[in-house]
Amino acid sequence: MATLYIVATPIGNLDDFSPRAVEVLKSVSYIACEDTRSSGILLKEYGIDTPTFSFHQHNEHQKVDYLVQLLDANQPVALISDAGMPGISDPGFLAVREAYQYGHKVTVIPGPDAATTAVVASGLPCDRYVYEGFLPHKKGRQKRLKQLSAEERTIIFYESPYRVIKLLEELNEHFDPGQWAAVCRELTKKFEEVVRGSLSELLTEFESRDELKGEFVIVVAPKGYDE
Ligand code: SAM
Hints:
Distance between the termini: 52 Å
Bound molecules: S-adenosylmethionine
CATH class of the largest domain: Alpha Beta
Mean pLDDT: 97
Low-confidence stretches: none
Number of helices: 8
Strand order of the largest sheet: 3-2-4-1-5
């Protein structure tokens, strides 16, 4: 039996990389990386010279067998994604499930993730929340939004800068435009920003901007929440 380590990496600020994460990445036999090139920069920065192999959404179904073979051969493996917590809108789930299925141990080295950072930063209720991540681009998107409009917990969405306006428009359509929400941008980075307001105010604000850059999380307060 060997251990699969799921290791969180920074979502922007390198100082959020924990000493325990670095120690584990130095100690394992291999590191499975979502992108070996971008992780290579981080690993080099921390003097981690452990061999890496790629493990991303397009090859994880093939590579998971290799990962289990390594564990079977008593070689501890760590899995990292480009940023944040593996498994959260990133590869991770499959590796964890298979590792358990083949009798190995799984240890998570926790660290930053954009969802919990955003829900806390939003100042909206965070006692009960639901993580939606990225909505499907086409099929099922409108149905999902309709279902979510009845949600009684705070909702967390991930979105790319190219679709933030579209998502805010759709939220205004399906939800109450007066519903409280927050747009959290570039968390932990130099240009970190949290803009709070009603869904309609947020749409007006972000539509008025020349260009939307960076990484975004949109947090929507439960129906009927008011300040
Ligand atoms: N595994 C990551 C995590 O733990 O949050 C998420 C990876 S997912 C592929 C990338 C998305 O996460 C981005 O499109 C954005 O929605 C969100 N994200 C990641 N870093 C962020 C940051 N620093 N600020 C705001 N959102 C971020």
